[in-house]
Every structure is written in C-alpha cells, then in structure tokens.
Design brief:
This protein has helices at residues 16-37, 77-85. With 86 residues, it is an all-alpha fold. The relative contact order is 0.05.
C-alpha cells in the first residue's frame, strides 16, 4: 500500500550551463594539446640579400582614382577608363 506524502516529489535535473562550460574547457584543452604535439616542419630558404639600402624611384607606376567619376549601372570599368582617358 502506498502512503501519500504531503511533500512534493523532487525530480533530478541536469543543468546544461555547467555541462557546456565543461565541454568548452575540454575542447580548448584538446586543441592546445594537439597543437603542441605537431612539430613545426619547414623548408630552409636562403633569402637574397640587398645590394644597397637605397629604395628605387620607379617612374612607371599608374594611379587610378574613381572619385568624382559617376559610373553608369552595368558599365564595364575598362570602358569607363578608356572613355575618361580620351
């Protein structure tokens, strides 16, 4: 025979927030350990040394600016550049 109780029954609860914290900690630990286990392998490269320390002055550069130049919708930028350079 079951005797009714005046106290309500307590059900077990699984808290999700601490579980998520533990999972993030385990994930971060796994990533850090796996990265520390990988050996950094590289190829030895002999880089060229500069003959002089002075920078070159290049005269063959082109500067393109699109300010104050309204472009038509769907217009190719090369066509607009050709039209502007005429």
């Amino acid at each position: 025979m079951i005797i009714p109780s005046s106290r309500p029954k307590k059900h077990a609860r699984i808290e999700i927030v601490p579980l998520i914290d533990i999972m993030f900690f385990l994930l971060a630990t796994f990533v850090m350990v796996s990265l520390s286990m990988v050996k950094n392998r590289g190829i030895a490269v002999v880089l060229p040394q500069a003959a002089s320390g002075t920078p070159e002055d290049r005269k063959d550069h082109v500067s393109i600016s699109a300010r104050n130049h309204p472009r038509k919708w769907g217009e190719n930028w090369t066509d607009a550049l050709r039209r502007r350079s005429r």
